[in-house]
Every structure is written in structure tokens, then in C-alpha cells.
Amino acid sequence: MTTKQIDYILELSQVLNFNRAAENLFTSQPTLTYQIKAVEEEIGFLIFNRSGKGISLTPAGAQFCISLRVFREDLNKAIEQGQNFSIRYQEDIKISLPGRSSIYFLPEIIREFANIRPQTSISPIFFAPNAMDLFLRNEIDIFYGIGDQCKRISEIIEYPLFESHFYLVTKTDDPLAQKDLIHMEDLKGRTLMVGGGSPPPLRAIQQRIINTIPIQYFNSYDHETTLTNIASDKGVCISPGFLNSHTPEFAWIPFDCAETLPCYLYTHKNNNRPEIKELLNTITDVYQKHDGFPL
């Protein structure tokens, strides 16, 4: 099946009229009919029902077109990215970063790195669920990790980036949002959201609060769900600062605790490209330059 045949199928599935689809595709009706039939013979099932009243998608054809449309969109994106890359760049570095806080740093990182390597592009992958797997398959060059996430993985190099502190997250109109520092006693009688894949230091803080003061708690699936619950007046949470998007909807107040969450960048030992090292230096320099930025 060719890309032209895919376009023929998708256009016909939209208009369900051979003559109109042929006009939209700037081809003849016999050519369109022939190409559709050729594909159906190739794949072994009918995409369209033909009758004297017109045409319609078969159940199999309807499902096939859904998958085909997704494939065509992904293919178009790949072609466009390839065209852009071939015009401007000779190298590309794929990097995994936390999507929220890094959005404040990444533009500056890209600008500064462009002064060093103008023909090397940076392709960010923002906290994809499978980022670790992509990194282990060498599909990501620089991986952002937290805590002991990568301690037992061999053949990688670890670069300390920053220590993320912990904050109480509330709505901006919450009385606690007016404080400069939150102590455990401030949470008496409140509802604390816990869980959601919390790293060990955060779980320790949550458990200490629950065991020490009268407080209600419930499990929240992930950080997005937690923020939704906070916005719905269902409770508050303790969160590492690297998850802070620094938007005005929520207040992030420093929480009084000794725990921090170390954040690192990782590369593969066998990836000796000089631009990787230069980008690591640029990232580290930018983060250090903003040492007072709440993370």
C-alpha cells in the first residue's frame, strides 16, 4: 500500500462519493476506483460497501480508517520534522526533562547551546512515562532522573543537577498560602493527598505527618489528579519543587523538613559525542545561574 493509496482511502471515507473524492484528489474516478479495489485485494477485506444508493464504510473499513488516519498523521509529522532537520541541523540530541520546572530553563538552555553548536538541535521529551525505557534503548541521549532511580544501572554516567526541596501545594486563596514556611502543625485538621508514585523521601514525609498530627488523608493517582483535587477543595499535598509549573493557580509554600530529592542527568558511557558534554555543561550552568529559583 502506497501513501497515495492511503490518501485515496481516507478522502473517500470522508466524502463517501467516488466522483467528489476524485475531484478533491485531482485524479479520475476510474483511477480512484482501481486503487481502492487494489488495496482491498491486498489487505483481504472490503473497506467500502458499494450499492446502487452509494457507498458506505464496512465495520472493518471504519476501524481500518481510524488506524490509517493516525498512521498518516504520524507519517506527516515525521516527514515535516525530517525536512526541518535536514535544512537547519546536522546533529540532534534527545533529552528527557521534567516538563514543568524545566520549561523555565529550556529556552535559555537552547539559546546558549545554539551559540556553541548552531547546527545541533535539541529534542526534549517531557517526562514521558516510558522515558527510562527509551533511555535504556539508547533512544534518549540525556535522561533526567530523581533520587535512586538509576543507581543500579550500569554503563551510565551520573551528573548532579540540583536538590529539589519540598513544598505544600494549596489554592492561592487558602489561608496557608499566606505563610512563608509551613510546619507540620499547620496541617492539623486538613486533608492530605498521598501516593501517586511518591518517591521515598516524600513517602517518609507523608507518613510522618499522618503518624504525628490529627489529619485526614486519601490516595491520589498522580500529580495531575492531585492538582485537580486541590483546585476542587478536596485537600492539599506535599510535592517536590521540580513539579512546580510556576503558574498562578496554586501556591507553593516551603515545607519545614530535612528531606530533599536529588535530581540528576544521566548519559551513556559509550556516547562520547562532544556535543553531549557541551549540552550537559550548558544545562548545569543555566541551573546554577538560577540558584535562587524555587525548586
Automatic annotation (TrEMBL):
SUPFAM superfamilies: Periplasmic binding protein-like II, Winged helix' DNA-binding domain. Residues 1-58 form the HTH lysR-type domain. GO terms for molecular function: DNA binding; DNA-binding transcription factor activity. Pfam families: HTH_1, LysR_substrate. CDD domains: PBP2_LTTR_substrate. One of its GO terms (cellular component) is protein-DNA complex. Signal peptide: none annotated. The keyword Transferase does not apply. PANTHER family: HTH-TYPE TRANSCRIPTIONAL REGULATOR CYNR, TRANSCRIPTIONAL DUAL REGULATOR HCAR-RELATED. Belongs to the LysR transcriptional regulatory family. This is HTH lysR-type domain-containing protein. It comes from Anaeromicropila herbilytica.
